[in-house]
TrEMBL record:
This is Class I SAM-dependent methyltransferase. One of its GO terms (biological process) is methylation. Pfam families: Methyltransf_25 (PF13649). The keyword Oxidoreductase does not apply. InterPro entries: Erg6_SMT_methyltransf, Methyltransf_25, SAM-dependent_MTases_sf. The keyword Hydrolase does not apply. Keywords: Methyltransferase, Transferase. PANTHER family: GERANYL DIPHOSPHATE 2-C-METHYLTRANSFERASE, ZGC:194242. Residues 21-112 form the Methyltransferase domain. GO terms for molecular function: methyltransferase activity.
C-alpha cells in the first residue's frame, strides 16, 4: 500500500485523535506508526509473529502505541472495546472469512468501523496454487461474497474503493528493487527465500495487471446489537 492509501482508508473509517484503533496482523507496524504520527489516534497492534512484534515495538519508541503477540481469531480485546479495527494486506491469509468477520464484529463497539484491504478474486486454481509460494496463506475472495459475509455478522459495508492501480505500482516497484538487490538478499537470507520473494511479487504484479486479482479498500460499520436502534424520547 502507499502511505497515502493507508491514510485515506483510516480517514474514511473516521480515525482521529480520539479513536481507539486495533491493528490486526500489524506486521512490523509501519502503517500503524504512520497513523499514530499523522492522526494522533491511540493504537494497539497485534501479530502472530513474535519477531515482527519485537521490531514494531523497537521502531515505535516514543509513540503512544502498544503491541502484543497474538493469533487471530479471536481478537485480543473485550467485547465492544474498539472504535476501529484495521486489517491491512492480510484478509487473504484467512481461509475462513466468516470466523474472521465474527471476531471483528465482537470487538467493535456499535457504530465502530472495520477498515481493511481486500485481495479480491475467485479462489486460486490448482495450477495457480502450485506457482504461488506459501499458497496456504493465499485465499482471495470475490467482493460480493466478502461483503455478504460481513453483513451476516452485522457489519454493513459503507465504502468500497478499487485501489488495484496503486497496489500494482507498489508491487512493480518492489519487484524491480528486489531483482536489483537479488545477490545481497540471497547472501543474507538464502536462495529459497529469494526465489520465493521474487516469484510471489511477479505473480501479484501479473495478476493485478491482468485483473485476475483486484485490491479494494473497504470500510464496514458495526450495526446496533440485535438490530435494535436507540430512540430518543
Ligand atoms: C502481509 S503482512 C501485513 C502486515 C501489515 N498489516 C502491513 O500492512 O504492513 C501479514 C502479517 O499477518 C500476520 N498474520 C497472518 N495470519 C495471522 C493470524 N491468524 N493472526 C495474527 N497475525 C497473522 C503475519 O505474521 C504477517 O506479519
Amino acid at each position: 500500500m502507499t502511505a497515502e492509501g493507508i491514510l485515506a482508508l483510516a480517514r474514511s473509517a473516521g480515525v482521529g485523535a480520539d479513536t481507539r484503533v486495533l491493528d490486526v496482523c500489524c506486521g512490523t507496524g509501519g502503517a500503524g506508526r504512520h497513523l499514530v504520527r499523522t492522526l494522533g489516534c491511540s493504537y494497539h497492534g497485534v501479530d502472530a509473529d513474535a519477531e515482527a512484534v519485537a521490531s514494531a515495538r523497537h521502531h515505535a519508541v516514543g509513540l503512544s502505541s502498544t503491541y502484543a503477540v497474538h493469533t487471530v481469531p479471536p481478537l485480543p480485546v473485550g467485547e465492544a472495546d474498539v472504535d476501529v479495527v484495521l486489517l491491512l494486506e492480510t484478509v487473504l491469509a484467512f481461509p475462513d472469512k466468516h470466523a474472521l468477520a465474527s471476531a471483528v464484529a465482537v470487538a467493535l463497539r456499535p457504530g465502530g468501523r472495520f477498515a481493511c484491504t481486500l485481495e479480491e478474486g475467485t479462489p486460486l486454481t490448482p495450477v495457480e496454487r502450485e506457482a504461488m509460494p506459501a499458497a496456504d496463506t493465499v485465499w482471495p475472495v470475490p467482493l460480493a461474497e466478502f461483503v455478504s459475509t460481513l453483513a451476516d455478522v452485522g457489519l454493513a459495508t459503507v465504502s468500497v474503493q478499487d485501489d488495484t492501480a496503486s497496489h500494482l505500482r507498489v508491487a512493480t516497484a518492489l519487484l524491480t528493487q528486489f531483482t536489483a538487490a537479488r545477490d545481497r538478499i540471497e547472501a543474507a537470507l538464502g536462495a529459497t527465500f529469494t526465489d520465493d520473494l521474487l516469484a510471489s511479487h511477479r505473480l501479484w504484479r501479473d495478476w493485478m495487471a491482468s485483473g485476475r486479482i483486484r485490491k479494494f479498500a473497504l470500510v464496514s460499520e458495526r450495526e446496533p446489537i440485535d438490530g435494535v436502534l436507540e430512540v430518543a424520547d
